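Please review this one.

:::
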Amino acid sequence: MDNFPQFDLKGRTALVTGAARGLGRAISLALAHAGADVALGLRDKNTGSDVVREIEKLGRKALPVQMDMSNLGQISSGIDQAAAHFAKLDILVNNAGIAPENLAENVTEKDFDATIAINLKGTFFASQAAGRIMIRQKYGRIINMSSQAGFAALPTESIYCMTKAGLAHLTKCLAVEWGKYNITVNAVAPTFIHTPGTEEYLAIPANRADTIERIAALHRIGEPMEVAGAVVFLASDAASLITGHTMLIDGGWTAR
C-alpha cells in the first residue's frame, strides 16, 4: 500500500513570530490544532495570555517568548528559549511584519528602516537562528510570510512591496542552501485578510469595494484560517517535496 500523505503535526514543535493577533494568532492555533506545541514570539511577552489559554484548551503546550523582531538579541534568545523549552524546534513561521503607508515621494527614512528591519532583517536572522538548530537536527520547516504585494504593486506601499518581494527570493536562497539538511523553506503570500491590521483600510467603503473587485476570482476578503491552512500544510510531511516555493493565497488577484 502507498504511504498516504500525513497532514498532522503530532510531536512537532513550532515558533510563530507576531503571534498575538491576526494571522499570527490564527496560525498558532491551527498548528496546535494539528498537534504541535507552539512557542509564541511576541513583541511584548505579556500580551499573549489569551492565545496561550486557547492552545492549552486544544491539549497542546504553549510558551510565550519575548521577541521584538527589530531586536537581534531578542530574536536569538527567543529562538534559543523555545528550542531549550521543547528540546527541539521543528517549525518556524516568520509572520511578524509592518506596513507603514505613504506615497513613495513622502516615505521617511525612519519608516523605510523600520520596515526593512522587521520584514527582511528580522526574518533573515530568525531563520538563521532556527536554521542552525534545524541543521543539527537534520530536520526543519521554515515558512515565511510574504504577500501578494510582492507580486503586484500596491500604491502607497512601495517599501512593504519591496520587502515582500525580497522575502520570496530569500525563501528560494535558504531552500537551496539548507535542503541537504532536510530543511524545507517556503512562503505564503496572502491577499487582503480580515485582521486588525487591515480593519481601518477596509472600513472605508471605496477601499473595500476596490479590494473585493481586484480579488478577481472569488470577490471576497479572506479569513485568517484560510491562510493558516496553507501554513499547516507546508509544515506537514504532506509537503515534504515542496521547497523554495511561494504559495499565493490571493483569491485570484494576480491571475488577471
Remarks:
- The beta strands are 13-17, 37-42, 62-66, 91-94, 140-145, 183-190, 246-249.
- The longest helix spans residues 109-137.
- The chain has one domain: 13-196+223-250.
